[in-house]
Amino acid sequence: MSVAGVVDTQPVRVFTLDDHELVRAGIRALLSTRDDVVLVGEAANAADALTQIAELQPDVALLDIMLGGGNGIDVCRQIRARHPEVRCIMLTSIAEDEAMQSAVLAGAAGYMLKQVSAAELAKAVTLVAAGKSLLDPRVTEGALERVRADAKCRDDLARLSDQERRILELIGEGCTNRQIGEALFLAEKTVKNYVTSILSKLGMQRRTEVAAFAARLGERHGSSSS
Hints:
Layout: E1 2-3, E2 6-7, E3 12-17, H1 21-32, E4 37-43, H2 46-56, E5 60-63, E6 66-67, E7 70-71, H3 72-82, E8 87-92, H4 97-106, E9 110-113, H5 118-129, H6 137-158, H7 162-172, H8 177-184, H9 188-202, H10 207-225
Parallel strand pairs: 3-4, 3-5, 5-8, 8-9
Antiparallel strand pairs: 1-2, 6-7
Helix pairs in contact: 2-3, 3-4, 4-6, 7-9, 7-10, 8-9
């Protein structure tokens, strides 16, 4: 709406999720000094945040990553799925590439450390609300590489039979053909034939490549289940 050629600009509506009252109070105090942003709601846990965001429909959600009984990245993913118009910024004390990449994959538009000033936070909120991204292109590319690598792993595994996957896992644990045969009740020559087949299906030349591949799969499985 405009009167005499003047555009009436509404402040950006912000919601914050953090399980520490002191942090929420700090954000509340920071944003209260601004005219271009307004805090419309806050929550200490994921369930309350999702309920309130559905009701309040903020423009931007500031989300902590580490929550008691929850995870801010999971909350971001759910917000983006249910309310794609709500933009998310991860506001955290965790400065790790893996956490940043996970935030990118969850649909976050920004990733900031809690040491930001009021001016920096307000600027970030207004930029994200306007549709811009605050993510480092290198972090975004890293996340995309991770997606591509995971997809390739899934495709490679799909080529293997159940028995070959069991043997692959044992190779990753450092087992010899004889040890694999004893574990699976197979002749050592049969195991050798399976290993040859695994090499062919994965497009690899040496057993060490298979062992390294199996180890990477184990690391991914371990990080996804933690």
